[in-house]
Amino acid sequence: MDDEKSSKNQKRVNQDFKQEQLEQYRMSDYGQPMTTQEGKKRSQDQDQLKAGIRGPSLRQDYELLEKVSHFVHEEIPERVVHARCCG
């Protein structure tokens, strides 16, 4: 029997591929202002309009609604309905 490894591909597998992708995205958009869909510049997107200090969020906060709608409409691969052939 050979003492060779079973795998011919000895290329290193990158364990942090996701982190490298994020870093490339951060580098490419560095210095670009954050904007809404209408093009209005925003300094941050963590705040929201509320009715009082501990009150509910207001529906007039269109920037929050825009952010939430993007999150809600993201496609989850596990939940995608697959077409079936019949016939």
TrEMBL record:
InterPro entries: Catalase (IPR018028), Catalase_clade2 (IPR024712), Catalase_core (IPR011614), Catalase_sf (IPR020835). It is an enzyme of class 1 (oxidoreductase). Its cofactor is heme. SUPFAM superfamilies: Heme-dependent catalase-like (SSF56634). Pfam families: Catalase. Coiled coil: none annotated. One of its GO terms (molecular function) is heme binding. Residues 35-87 form the Catalase core domain. Keywords: Heme, Hydrogen peroxide, Iron, Metal-binding, Oxidoreductase, Peroxidase. Its EC number is 1.11.1.6. Residues 1-55 are annotated as: Disordered. One of its GO terms (biological process) is hydrogen peroxide catabolic process. Residues 1-23, 38-48 have a biased composition (Basic and acidic residues). One of its GO terms (cellular component) is cytosol. This is catalase.
